[in-house]
Design goal:
The protein has one domain: Amino acid/polyamine transporter I (Up-down Bundle), CATH 1.20.1740.10. It starts with about 30 loop residues before the first helix and ends with a helix. The protein is mostly helical. The protein is globular, with a radius of gyration of 22 Å. The chain is about 70% helix and about 0% strand. It contains 17 helices and no strands. Helix 15 crosses helix 17 and helix 16 crosses helix 17. The N terminus is likely disordered.
Length: about 450
Amino acid sequence: MADREGRGGTAGPNAGGGAGRHPRDRLGRELGTLDATMLVVSSVIGVGIFLTPGTVAAEVPDARLFLLAWLAGGVLSAAGALANAELGAMMPRAGGDYVYLREAFHPAAGFLVGWLSFFVVYAGTVATLAVGFADGLEPFVALSGAGRTAVAIAAILATSWVNHRGLRAGAIFNNATALLKVATLAALVVAGFALAPGAVARVPETAAPPSTPGLLSAALALPPVLFSYLGWNASIYVASELRDPERTLPRSLLLGLGLCTLLYLAVNALYLRALGMEGLAGEPRVGEATARALFGEAGGRIAAALVLLSVLGCLNATILVGPRIAYAMALDGLFFAGAERVHEANRTPHVAIAVQAAVAIALVALLRRFPSVLDYTTFAIVLATIADVAALGALRRKRPGWPRPFRAIGYPWLPGLYLVANAGIAVAMVVGRPLECAAALAVAATGVPAYFAFARRASR
């Protein structure tokens, strides 16, 4: 019999097996289609769209191929989203890919991906975004190194508190920041095209030919593009808290990603209009450079404020999602005792939220270079999404009789395309950022002894 905080008897690794809701899950179904869609939007639109287009343009010095790379990133992400839509509608549980891999392969596979996702992907992303938020205050207030660290920690504590207070509180905050972010980006695009019709004329129409063949150039540009789309699977982790998850989950993934793809194409078209390919290529802060070119120095401050809003919204979404992984693992007895507790009044996994905040704050103290930590978390995300898309094929063979309210369009070709593209990105990252990738793999390796310890405890 569970006590007032949601503790129950020990559960073996397969105790929560099956396609339905976990029998010990006490989280309420409070999220609708708008909430879940905005969760995807907030998770995708962080800092990438304001920083990475310059890197992409350096690889693809042709405007048509540049925009094609961003469209290809949306299509590849959609291939992953379609696979996750089938998995999530079939298994509407907290925990996302932890659940899928456990059922598709083995509890150990699910545990290792869950361990990597919680400690590297989500805690690492929370820390990275918090530091990015503190750094983003620079145009508005001067902060020392210690001051930036304090702001980053305060941002983690404040957003964690909001999500501890209740799922609706976190969702309302997320909806507000996401809708404001979308509206501001849309207004920036409209104003940019309407008020600066001659901006592109400053850059010659004919640029130097690409140094590599066109399609190869586009392929080399895909890693930073796909990084900017990461977060498209956010709603799968809160599946047990969705109303009518069999319909809400697929809709949220496809609507959220579709909206982000359209915004990304529009914003990048504005970048091209304002800076041209020559001005865009290699520019580290494309958002600010574009706003300054279009609206003068005041535009730079507007862009800086938009980045702050975007980072804050993404931080809140990440803090909302991440604890559900630890919570789901703890429901099966495969995480630290207590992480499965649900706050009696707030109906939130408050212990898991506190654990994530503590890990993220510890990482903030260790951060030295923002791009380095970004590569560390991005590599882990790529590995996790490769694994859960692979789980789709395994479950089609292993569980053919399970109800599938949504079936992935284009199976097996689209999931296969996603796997091939992201495997190539993973290899490129290992070659280009070996230390960061090794650190992510080392964290995953610590999960091996942890799994056996948890599984042994749960089987008693």
